[in-house]
């Protein structure tokens, strides 16, 4: 009976180690994928950079509680074509609406996700509202 109990404990421990290993690998993959775009978080700095580089500014308004925002981070913003187009043509800004309600109000980003393209003076050029697949986003940027 004791050998049976030891066998069960060994199996349970082995399963726990396996689950933890899989979780760690998955977490590392997600972190790697979402870090391919370097987002800024200061509009004034982005406007300065846009003036110097003669680019427009792409602002991604999001919230941690917004599931579609997370989906875009994992799907659209990791797509190689989207990453290339965004990084080549825009100064990139990511704004948490809960931490920056003033900027969210200025650009009326009340429905999430909302992406706003602005010129180097902060004037709105284009607005994209709602979840976008990589293909949909590419057709608009």
From TrEMBL:
<protein>
    <recommendedName>
        <fullName>Thioredoxin domain-containing protein</fullName>
    </recommendedName>
</protein>
<feature type="domain" description="Thioredoxin">
    <location>
        <begin position="19"/>
        <end position="141"/>
    </location>
</feature>
<dbReference type="Pfam" id="PF13899">
    <property type="entry name" value="Thioredoxin_7"/>
</dbReference>
<dbReference type="InterPro" id="IPR036249">
    <property type="entry name" value="Thioredoxin-like_sf"/>
</dbReference>
<dbReference type="GO" id="GO:0015035">
    <property type="term" value="F:protein-disulfide reductase activity"/>
</dbReference>
<dbReference type="InterPro" id="IPR013766">
    <property type="entry name" value="Thioredoxin_domain"/>
</dbReference>
<dbReference type="GO" id="GO:0045454">
    <property type="term" value="P:cell redox homeostasis"/>
</dbReference>
